[in-house]
Amino acid sequence: MRKRVVQFFKNILYIFMKSDEEFVKSILTEKEQKLFRTLKKSEQIHSELVTKTFLKSVNGKASENHIKAVLLHDIGKVERPLTLIEKSVAVLVHKAGFSGVSFIQGRPFMMSYLHHAERGADLLLSRGIFLKDSTEEQLIRTHHETTETLKKTYKKDPEFIRIHKLLKEADDCN
Fold it and tell me: 106 phi and psi, to 5 degrees?
């Protein structure tokens, strides 16, 4: 719970932070940057921080497409952006185990929170940014899945599991 409170205040601070334009330009094409800039400012900064954390964890050694996927991991949130309060409620409801209750699950803000990973992967596929079943598409689509679930359900290769785990850890701490 303490981690969620810290994330809440970080989100408030994101409003006052400046996006690192050069960092984003170094990773994304102009077309991709336009899409990225449709995210709320706080989500852009969150994604930049996640990517920088990810890069530290791999000592800067990751493929360009993996880095791009990490930066675009929350792009599905452009379809239905969440307010800070909605995001906070969604996180608490989900962590408390109530996100499966149909009354709650059907709310537009909960739909956005619960399904942004799949929506993001589909959006990037439709724009031709990643290929179907590519590692990058799968990283985005599954970035909220647990490592155990991936191992059991998808039987993913060890390198995918390693990159996924590092993305998830970077996402969780930012």
Answer: -80, -10
